[in-house]
Specification:
about 240 residues; two-stranded parallel sheet; about 5% strand
Amino acid sequence: MTLHLMHQIFSRHPQVRLHAVTVDEGIKGYRDTSLPIARKNCELLGIPHHIISFQEAVGVTMDEIAAYHDDLGECSYCGVFRRFCLNKKAKELGIDKLVMGHNLDDMAQSILMNFTNGDMQKLARLGPHTKIQPGLIPRLLPLRLIPEKEVMLYALVKGIEFHNAECPYSVRALRGSFRDIVDALEEKTPGTRHSIMNSYESIKDLLLEKYPPIKLNSCPSCGEPTSQKLCKTCLLKKRIQQ
């Protein structure tokens, strides 16, 4: 839906060029079945489609990572590596903004997860990003107030082909528990997702004031921005190479 909306809004804008980026995590039976659909949508709209894979950027596929049975869980690796791939490919293409497809359900779950975990700094960094950090491409979230079911309904009404499947590794993810919590609250008290989102929006400026963006270094291994000596991607790569 995000791709089609961006095309509808900006395709005739003389100063905006749209590119689509798909991250291929290397999940057999899941990502390989969605790539042709993404490619078909881009061809339909005349938007260049770019693919960056974990194998290419990190040197390992998600299926191979899963075989390690690491206590961190697959999603811990996937989230870090996906962000790395998107930032890397965006810089290669000269893209200055990444438009993501996160919906209201995604946002409510993330807010609740970070709040429950006491990770206020991570909560403060949730997009959309208004302050640009050197080396990091800011992210826009145009669907963040739209419920997941409405996004799907829009696609169905408009005849947009999409990949309706769940990642096989998500069943072990902590996010699944928070999805169930948010869904149960929404069913009992309709509007809960919007309330969670509105509450976050009302305190976001205060969070940013207390936890302003920190100065970033350049990772000596890959060159990506990091607040540590080595970036999270390189730390996780070393972990699975041990």
